[in-house]
């Protein structure tokens, strides 16, 4: 009788969890719905990339005129640092062989299969292409549905392979922090793949873990930053000489799969393959980053007047002090990552927490902090923190502030360039960034090796 009663309770909780999951999906779809049928959204840009890749840029004429001008009539700020013309010019100056020049010249960006996204790797074209299954006007609706299902997949993986508390926390953070970005961006695809990599890694199925990590990297480049924590976690479990083949077999899977994808990408477009790797380095400071918050605080005291510009597909801040602040952030990046890896090697933190800290340190010290970046860490936060009160309180605040910034503060004005002039913008983004810094410091403090004082 007790067995049947316990089984009934489990079934009731399972039904409740799926009801909550459906509610999460409905809220995420609704959160992205304000962007549907608009021509200036990120999803509209994805449609341009997918259509240009499969059918050529001539087919872009079937879409609204203003939607794909960054491809059909690009302005200088729309172009990536590396284009076919600049690449050919550089190769001619270095005396590249004629066959190489001709190979690149034959990759006409306006023809099918040769237009790759300026800022993203090759595999992003897979989620971009899903929306093409619907008629042109419904692309963004289908895209939002598919991305919402990916978010549900993340939650279900945590429920099945980790804990119910992680499932509940992940669903909560997705709703609060990914209100408009889960269904309006493609980042959730890489998020799911990195979560799969983590789940396979903690079960010591390292070949699969590194394979998922490679696929995630070529959906969006940031997962490559998790390569070192994964390698360290694997090496700590193995015994024997360092030149033992089994020590490096799984990392070899990552390299082999990455090389295969790179070769395919080079065959399609050499310039398009190289462009994403140079895209980020030339970007200015984005207005939601910690760099921008520091520049804003300094400007309040009359140092370094701020101006704003729209370039590289985002709203950026220009300041004479930007280079110095970025240099300081780079130093903090190296120190933070070095300390994280040291803690991991000592066994003070596990792979999930090391991965979370790595991503957070990269995000908070980077020149760019777009609202969808919060999605990168949500499954790791849920995995490591579950429903612990301190984590729930802090991350509920961080996620809520992120959604307050985008879309709500952004929608307070019709002009994108005037968003930083709104009284709420910089204070809210600065508080959010401060909370992230406090969380990182808190984890470092808790994880620091404790000094044992000998008894007298």
UniProtKB/TrEMBL annotation:
The keyword Transmembrane applies. Keywords: Membrane, Transmembrane, Transmembrane helix. The chain crosses the membrane at residues 12-32, 137-158, 170-202, 208-232, 253-277, 289-306, 318-339, 351-370, 391-412, 424-446. It comes from the Bacteria. This is Membrane protein. It comes from Tengunoibacter tsumagoiensis.
